TrEMBL record, chain A:
Taxonomic source organism: Roseivivax sediminis
PROSITE patterns referenced in this protein's UniProt entry, alphabetically: ETF_BETA
GO-annotated molecular function: electron transfer activity
GO process terms (BP): carboxylic acid catabolic process
Domain Electron transfer flavoprotein alpha/beta-subunit N-terminal: 23-215
Any Pfam family hit: ETF
Cofactor entry: AMP
Listed SMART domains: ETF (SM00893)
InterPro entries associated with the record: ET-Flavoprotein_bsu_CS (IPR000049), ETF_a/b_N (IPR014730), ETF_b (IPR012255), ETF_beta_N (IPR033948), Rossmann-like_a/b/a_fold (IPR014729)
Subunit structure of this chain's protein: Heterodimer of an alpha and a beta subunit.
Keyword Electron transport: yes
Family: Belongs to the ETF beta-subunit/FixA family.
Name the record gives this protein: Electron transfer flavoprotein subunit beta
Top-rank lineage group of the source organism: Bacteria
Automatic annotation (TrEMBL), chain B:
One example GO MF annotation: electron transfer activity
Membrane spanning stretches: none
Domain of life, per lineage: Bacteria
Keyword check for Transferase: no
Start and end residues of each Electron transfer flavoprotein alpha/beta-subunit N-terminal domain: 3-181
Role description: The electron transfer flavoprotein serves as a specific electron acceptor for other dehydrogenases. It transfers the electrons to the main respiratory chain via ETF-ubiquinone oxidoreductase (ETF dehydrogenase).
Co-factor requirement: FAD
Residue positions binding FAD: 201, 226-227, 240-244, 257-264, 278
Family under the similarity heading: Belongs to the ETF alpha-subunit/FixB family.
Protein name: Electron transfer flavoprotein subunit alpha
Cofactor, how bound (note): Binds 1 FAD per dimer.
Amino acid sequence: MKILVPVKRVIDYNVKVRVKSDGSGVDLANVKMSMNPFDEIAVEEAIRLKEAGTAEEVIAVSIGVKQAQETLRTALAMGADRAILIVAADDVHQDIEPLAVAKLLKAVIDEEQPGLVIAGKQAIDNDLNATGQMLAALTGWAQATNANSLKVEGDHATVAREVDGGLQTIKVKLPAIVTTDLRLNEPRYASLPNIMKAKKKPLEEKTPEDYGVDVSPRLEVVKTSEPPERAAGEMVPDVDTLVAKLKEKGVV
Amino acid sequence: MAVLLLAEINDGHLSMDATAKAVTAAKALGDVTVLAMGAKAADAAKEAATIDGVAKVVVAEDARYGHRLAEPAAALVASLAEGYDHICAPATTDAKNILPRVAALLDVMILTDVTGVIDADTFERPIYAGNAMQTVKSKDAKKVLTIRTSTFDAAGTGGSASVEDVAAADDPALSEWVEDKLAESDRPELTSAGIVVSGGRGIGSEENFAVIEKLADKLGAAVGASRAAVDSGFAPNDWQVGQTGKVVAPDLYIAVGISGAIQHLAGMKDSKVIVAINKDEEAPIFQVADYGLVGDLFEVVPELTEKL
């Protein structure tokens, strides 16, 4: 079985994002970029399935700017076997929407015929939480989002999903789309020898035209703004003062 | 303009709070038809018919909708989409699972966690864990969106909309439910509680979380946790408040031993009153708190529990 893992290049999660003063978006100039953390979990899970003998090959795919090569090299250094980069934008500020991404991934699936797709549940830039579900709709496959655990057995997979108030376990027919939640695993760090080896692994470059997919956006970004700030509060010296303040506010 | 709104129903029970808040956002867009879907949904449908602003309720009661599996649920919603300009739902885990699938079936984009309705095509939503707000205008013929409930007030009740049955859609039969493991608790649900008491890494251990739980129980509050506390194994993941967990906006939020990482703030900064208790006076949580108290939480919290 082949496993396909889509990965996205996003602002590193430790970087504080800054909204551009003209309201046109978030400043991405000279900002550290990394693999979306949920996608790292997806790569790790796929590699573990390969190590366990469940999968033969792990293919990482990224859709975006040319620089996403680095993100794919990271996936290869972690243990993916080969990578496909679909260059769909020239400008780092252009985000390819989940619907277009899902259409491109569907086209890759048609060529590669994987038995499983493992994707991050959401990208930490646009926070949409949509690509996996959309891809499942386009392929007509089952979906298991927010995976907390994943077991592949024969022609189906058993997935415990993080839901409001606990876990829901479902069994899905393969091929299927699984999206990762935080506690599925702890991704490994790539070792230096593996980083060197990853430079020699195959990385194929494509364009949306190669797949006949139109990636023009359906959503127009009107403006991007800073979130409203809270007014400064006050420090209280002790518990008695705190209790008095809360009673005054009528919240206790 | 007509809106189809997927009600939040679990085991036959309507989640009134989440559904009524989504109705508030939806009724600005047009006449609201609520879809009540489930193995049992008739009672929930009757209850949803009382929400002010609901014009009609349609019920799809069938075993295949019992566990809200995404494939049959999305097939049903997509089959009903004709005649509606907007399809929406409160942004619960279920709706986040189902509605993007619906959008792709209809070949339109999805807008998730909408916090503001500007006009019929234009919506506001947070990006980057709430560190920026984006206003987007949709060019799609139909708009599919999930509504972040913490930013809308619940619509009132007293209405009496008509209720009618709709046929079930074909079940793609791709997945089956195995089991639910839900945390047993007498405490209120985190996202709809009036008061939330949360603990962070400063709590130090799973056992020490009892100090948080005692304060919560005294106040009739829900218990939350920061991602740091969850990652350290002090608290279960479904207690997690933050961008990667639950987004809450209670009347009172008490953050104990929480430093205030960006991802946590994104999940609670819309709370009406925020109290922070931390031994580090430099902790960023104090910048969003209405009342800050610097001190040892193991002394301060029991004293607070006693004096409230």
